[in-house]
Structures are given as C-alpha cells and as structure tokens.
C-alpha cells in the first residue's frame, strides 16, 4: 500500500509546475486548513500539482512529502544562491543593523542574492548579514554540530524551524545541512538513514537511536541531542537516562543506525 505522505493523490494531480516557498515558513497540511504534517522554509522547492481557491497541493522536492499549503505562500522559483547557516537571522530594510528588520529567517532557509553591500547580501526579503549565510552548495560535515544550533528551540509537533521543531525535523535539518537526503518523519528516517548497527557497539557521534515515534542524534558517547515533548524543547540529555526514561513510556530502542558522514573535525 502506498504511503500518502509520499505518494501524490491521483485526484489532485492536475498539473506539474515548479514553484517555491516565498514566505519565511509555511505549514504543510493533510487537508486544506487541516492539521500540520510538516513545515517548509523560505526557498523550498515544490512541485505544484493542484491549486483551488486559496490552497495549493504540492510535493516537496527535498523529501517527497505531499500536502497542502496556502497558495499565496508560493511563487515562481528563483535561482537560489545562499542558505542560512546561523540558528536564525534578520533581513533588514537597509545594509545597516540599525535599520528596520523586515522579517526573521530560520536556519536552512534558502535565498536568492540580488546584490552585495557592506557585509550584507541583498535579497528580495531584505539585507541579510553575510556572516549568517553560506553558498547554497556548501555543506557541513557534522550533523551533531548542526543539531546543536537548535538547542533551546521550542518543541513543535511537525515543526521544521528555529521557531519550533520536533524530533524528526531536527534530524532532517541536521542531515540536509550535510547533504544527506532525509525523510520528514521518524518512521521513514528509520528505514532510510544510514546503516543498522547490529554488533552491540556503543553509540558514537552522529549515530541515530530510534524508538516508536521518536528519534535522537548521538552527540557524544554519553549524550543525546533531541527535540522532545518531555522537555518541550531541543535539549542535550544523558544517553542512558534518555533510554531508561523513554523505555518506561514508549518502549525500548527499536534501532541504532550509523550515518555515513565524514569523521568529526578536531
């Protein structure tokens, strides 16, 4: 049976046009106005398959997730040049940190540069500090380092941004920054990411531990980093404490997987 999260609804496949998210953040929903499944950040590429009234049915190009977004949150695709690498940033009216901030953008947002001036990259959304940007094709090599940028971010079911994120959203953000294709939900991630560790070797940095409905990233041999409803935030937690706590509520670890990433620096 096909997964409706990843399989477009044949009744909604009226067209196939490229489009792009043109707002800082939008919810991807199961039905128009329905519950949030995931979120899409500024600059996310989608395929527009149907548009009726104020809603658009799309498939996200990064992970294949299907759903509805508000139609006015989409625009024609721009040639993306940079991505946000800070936890979050402001886009200013002028190339001046004392000018009005026009909007805030989360880590992972993608923008098209229209110019450069005085330490800022100019975009249609405003002037963004150069320190907060990297070329769109540049990659990190340490998912755990990226995940740590989200420490303190409020927990949000289906969230994918610095304003709110869940366990699978955190893993997806960390993997995406390192060029790893990553599904949006933990059950899909468990079947797609890395290789299973079956020899009882201890967890190491950038391993993934899965439970029913949850995933966490190993930060070091004694510590996990994960977005979780227990803390209602992205936090560091002692690895064994987390295993014991989650086992009482949701059961044991269901798998231990190892990402294929470069060895951590230093």
TrEMBL record:
Keywords: Hydrolase, Protease, Thiol protease. InterPro entries: NLP_P60_dom, Papain-like_cys_pep_sf, PG_Endopeptidase_C40, SH3_16. Pfam families: NLPC_P60, SH3_16. The keyword Hydrolase applies. GO terms for biological process: proteolysis. One of its GO terms (molecular function) is cysteine-type peptidase activity. Residues 137-260 form the NlpC/P60 domain. Belongs to the peptidase C40 family. This is C40 family peptidase.
């Amino acid at each position: 049976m096909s997964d409706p999260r990843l399989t477009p609804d044949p009744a909604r496949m009226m067209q196939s046009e490229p489009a792009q998210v043109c707002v800082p953040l939008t919810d991807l929903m199961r039905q128009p106005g329905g519950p949030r499944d995931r979120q899409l950040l500024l600059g996310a590429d989608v395929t527009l398959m149907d548009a009726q009234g104020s809603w658009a049915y799309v498939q996200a190009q990064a992970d294949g997730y299907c759903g509805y977004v508000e139609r006015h949150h989409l625009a024609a695709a721009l040639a993306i040049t940079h991505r946000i690498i800070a936890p979050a940033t402001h886009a200013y009216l002028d190339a001046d940190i004392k000018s009005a901030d026009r909007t805030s953008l989360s880590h992972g947002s993608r923008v098209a540069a229209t110019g450069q001036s005085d330490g800022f990259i100019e975009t249609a959304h405003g002037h963004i500090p150069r320190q907060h940007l990297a070329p769109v094709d540049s990659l990190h090599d340490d998912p755990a380092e990226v995940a740590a940028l989200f420490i303190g971010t409020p927990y949000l079911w289906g969230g994918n941004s610095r304003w709110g994120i869940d366990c699978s959203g955190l893993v997806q953000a960390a993997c995406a920054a390192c060029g790893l294709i990553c599904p949006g939900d933990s059950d899909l991630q468990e079947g797609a990411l890395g290789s299973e560790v079956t020899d009882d070797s201890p967890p190491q940095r950038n391993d993934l531990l899965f439970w029913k409905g949850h995933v966490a990233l190993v930060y070091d041999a004694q510590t996990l980093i994960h977005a979780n409803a227990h803390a209602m935030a992205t936090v560091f937690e002692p690895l064994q404490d987390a295993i014991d706590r989650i086992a009482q509520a949701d059961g044991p670890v269901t798998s231990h997987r190892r990402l294929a990433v470069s060895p951590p620096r230093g």
